[in-house]
Specification:
By secondary structure, the protein is α+β, with helices and mostly antiparallel strands.
Length: 299
């Protein structure tokens, strides 16, 4: 019975913004440390590496204090042992402090091997994170619905926040909604929306994604109340090739039914100066203006 319940909702429930995962395995991040590191912010990633460096040196410093055998080190001094560990870990070797005896030399050998492995891992992780291609696509806060050329149209504004281009831009818009199927149970259906253009040669400044709400559209006859009742959500996916990084990048944005503004349109953010220069007013990127209510579309 539980399996059937999951199967009925498997088509799109994982993409919904109000899904809360329960009964997940404990500490699943331990199974994919590499993925976890790449998802960290830069301050968190650098802090993690710094903590690992400090912890490893502190651990070896305690070991040196326990076995002794370090020349020119004050007996029982953690700071001296820590400084010797740092010099060994980083292969500095000033010569003032040196290991004496079997156990001290064994610890130095072990720390040298540990430093080699950890330095290689940290270098690889930082290189992977630094070299990961990411897009800085900006999505307007709201989705608007109003008439364009006499046709009710769903419109979504996107833009490129970088001073370059995303070439061969592909666009997908998917709608999620709750339906009650003929068998009587609820189903979270995923429906692709047909766009006027699902491809653009380049995304340089601003692009308006448009979906005509024709009788064939799954949004035909939908208003704010019906969108809320059906828990309508939209997912916008942008993919393309960054002309600077020469790598494929992508960006995604989810909108709930509360983010859809009917009888409104995005304000114009582009203007041309007297010299012919196109100016993009970023401060108005999220602004919308209400228009004359469109005539009700009969379902």
């Amino acid at each position: 019975m539980r399996f059937d319940w999951l199967r009925q909702r498997s088509e799109s429930s994982a993409f919904r913004t109000n899904v809360r995962v329960v009964n997940a395995p404990a500490n699943p991040w331990l199974q994919d440390v590499y993925f976890l590191f790449l998802t960290l912010s830069w301050p968190a990633a650098l802090s993690l590496i710094a903590f690992g460096w400090l912890f490893t040196n502190a651990l070896f410093a305690v070991a040196y204090m326990m076995v002794g055998g370090i020349a020119q080190v004050e007996r029982g001094s953690f700071l001296d042992a820590f400084h010797f560990s740092v010099q060994t870990f980083q292969t500095i070797g000033y010569g003032a402090m040196s290991p004496v005896g079997f156990w001290a030399n064994l610890l130095v050998d072990l720390e040298a091997m540990t430093a080699l492995v950890l330095t290689a891992l940290a270098t690889g992780l930082m290189f992977a994170k630094f070299g990961r291609a990411t897009a800085r696509v900006r999505f307007a806060k709201c989705v608007t619905v109003s008439t364009m050329d006499g046709v009710p149209t769903l419109m979504i504004r996107v833009g490129n926040s970088r001073q370059n281009q995303i070439i061969n831009t592909r666009i997908r818009v998917v709608m999620f909604r709750t339906e009650r199927v003929a068998e009587g149970y609820l189903f979270y259906r995923m429906i692709d929306l047909d766009l006027e253009r699902d491809w653009a040669p380049a995304l340089a400044r601003s692009l308006l994604i448009r979906h005509p709400i024709t009788p064939d559209s799954p949004l035909y006859g939908v208003d704010q109340e019906r969108a809320r009742a059906e828990e309508v959500e939209l997912m916008v996916l942008i993919t393309g090739n960054d002309d600077t990084l020469m790598s494929e990048v992508h960006a995604m944005k989810r909108y709930s039914h509360d983010d859809v503004v009917f009888n409104a349109r995005h304000v114009d953010v582009l203007r041309e100066t007297d010299t012919g220069t196109i100016v993009l007013d970023v401060d108005r990127f999220d602004d919308v203006e209400h228009v004359t209510p469109m005539s009700k579309v009969e379902a």
